[in-house]
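User: I want to check something. If I give you two sequences, will you return the structure for each one separately, not as a complex?

Assistant: Yes, each is folded on its own. Here is the first sequence with its structure:
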Amino acid sequence: MPQNSLLMSAITACRTKLNAFIRGRTAVREDADDILQEVTYKLMQVEQPVENVAAWLFRAARNEMTDRARKKRELPLADFFGGSEENDFPEDELAETLFGVPQTPEDEYLKTLLWEELEEALAELPDAQREVFEKTELLGYSYNELAEESGSSVQTLLSRKHKAVLFLRTRLRNLYDEITG
């Protein structure tokens, strides 16, 4: 365990500066504390030796802040349906229909219809776009988890998902218009 004690000593030595670095770049104190805890935990999980612990921690903190900023900018699928007022897609209604508990036989039928249409639309997407959409929207993957699993960059995954959402927006808009028209 001498490696762990050396690691803890290195973390303790740069913790104050690292904390100030993170707090200077985040608006919410709790977020800064979370980031500090997350990068410390990640360092403990690294299997190969880290030569410069301070540099590694600062780089990991910067990466974590960037990831969190990207996540905050991400819009859920429903947000892509917004537009001008006369063209608004009732995203809350869609989410409630897809993921809520049906109250009537009509609700059950509509839920089944929407899921079938979504599955058909997803099947029309290129495999890479479908995979990133399904894993981030339906299975709860983070972009970092998916990037690690697939070997693709986060930026590539974001691009693929954007293309998938644009296609699905059009496809589901047509269905919605047919149902309400």
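And separately, the second sequence with its own structure:
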Amino acid sequence: MAKKSKKQREEGAREALPKKGGGGRRAGGTPATVALTAAGVTYRVHAYDHDPSHPSYGEEAAEALGVAPERVFKTLVADVDGALTVAVVPVTCSLDLKALASALGRKRATMADPALAERTTGYVVGGISPLGQRRKLPTVLDASAAGHPTIHVSAGRRGLEVELSPEDLLKVADARSAPIARA
């Protein structure tokens, strides 16, 4: 079987198909989709043409996919009392650092250095996924996710989103839910 070029793999990823199993690295997957496949959860991959000049990765995803922005969540990496932590909040909100620290029983949180976040997760800023990270970090999903049947998070690459239930995200990311977003 001939090896697919990067362009062919990316074009194949543009198909938004429900997946349960399959879709691993050989099928053009990312570490995030590989983790979802290994967990046996149902998810859907959505691709769009990323515009590097767009001011917000998350808002760009919502617009490009025609999804309510409240259902698109961004993945942020914070330093909570010296430990890197992942926070997943709606793109329409900001991360409440004090609430994040409190949700983990800690005192103080600051945003992590972007270069450190990239090295630790194995993803680039704008494509950091809460799933399939190089080093598993504690993860907190904003409680508002429970109000949606499915949400969108980065699939591990700019221009690639994965849609799944909040419950499945909590399970696969071994995350907790807490109110960590502010309008």
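Because they were folded independently, the notes below concern the second chain alone. The CA atoms of residues 4 and 182 lie 44 Å apart. Helices lie at 6-13, 31-39, 57-65, 97-103, 114-121, 166-172.
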